[in-house]
Write a structure and sequence with these properties.
CATH architecture of the largest domain: Up-down Bundle
CATH class of the largest domain: Mainly Alpha
Helix content: 55-70%
Low-confidence stretches: none
Shape: rod-shaped
Number of strands: 2
Number of domains: 2
Number of helices: 6
Oligomer: single chain
Distance between the termini: 24 Å
Length: about 280
């Protein structure tokens, strides 16, 4: 190789290699800082595009999970209220049956009637307050039911059916004005209560099935979200153990590159020895 004070090919080659090492070192340091081997499109365009699509799905399924959580809460509030109503109907039937006894006096009948009407009032309060986040499926305000998100595209829904437990309806056939004032009225109420109780219990069974279906789908969505999150991690997460070893190797390589460049830069000094006396 010719000796020249204008062009030092060895130094240029050493500098190019040092620049490559520095670039690789920057990449490794960025991966360690971010924990990602693909932090942007320039790192790997295809993988980044796939990862972004998966992140979009994860965000959408998060919204689905929130919707299903709300559905389960609305359903559980309604279920608790319905079970309380069923318990009250049992008490009401007991009092109505007692009021059919022809041997009781007027004072006792009035006492039964007062207790019976107090229970009616309590049922009305429960139905009115069986609400979560503004939704009540035990009255007619959300008939025939409420649909909740079931997939990330928002095209499918799960329905929590309404169970109208208002007085005088198809389920709770008992009238809000029912009375035990006479034996005849009490006898009629007993029959109505039996039908109403059967209807309410059937409505609770249907409501329980809806809630169980929603909760099962919510578990599936949660597992699916976890799987998608793991998938994104497999695509873009850096192996920090490997990056640590790579970083140390590149640091050594960088130091050697600096020394090589220093040696190459000193080469033109040889020319001076050629002109010494």
């Amino acid at each position: 190789m010719a000796l020249s004070v204008h062009t030092n090919k060895s130094a240029l080659a050493a500098l190019q290699q040092l620049n490559v090492t520095n670039s690789q070192l920057d990449v490794s340091q960025t991966r360690i800082n971010t924990g990602l081997k693909v932090a942007g499109a320039k790192d790997n365009a295809a993988v980044f595009a796939v990862a972004q699509g998966l992140r979009s799905d994860i965000g959408a399924y998060s919204a689905v999970g929130t919707s299903l959580d709300r559905a389960a809460s609305i359903g559980n509030v309604a279920l608790a209220a319905g079970e309380s109503i069923s318990d009250l109907l049992i008490q009401m039937r007991e009092k109505a049956t007692a009021a059919t006894d022809s041997s009781i006096d007027t004072f006792t009948r009035k006492a039964y009637d007062a207790d019976f009407k107090a229970l009616i009032s309590q049922i009305g309060v429960i139905v009115a307050n069986a609400e979560f986040d503004g939704a009540n499926i035990l009255n007619s305000s959300n008939s025939p039911g409420i649909g909740f998100l079931a997939d990330a595209d928002g095209t499918r829904t799960l329905t929590l059916k309404s169970q109208n437990l208002s007085f005088g309806g198809s389920i709770l056939t008992l009238a809000a004005t029912a009375s035990l004032g006479t034996r005849t009225l009490a006898t009629a109420v007993v029959s109505t209560l039996k039908t109403s109780l059967d209807n309410v219990n059937q409505a609770l069974a249907s409501l329980g099935s809806d809630i169980k279906k929603i909760e099962a789908h919510n578990v599936f969505v949660s597992k699916l979200t976890d799987s998608l999150t793991s998938g994104v991690g497999n695509l873009v997460d850096a192996d920090l153990a490997k990056e640590s070893a790579r970083l140390q190797a590149l640091q050594v390589k960088q130091q050697l590159g600096v020394q090589a460049l220093s040696i190459a830069n000193s080469r033109p000094q040889i020319i001076l020895s050629l002109f010494q006396n």
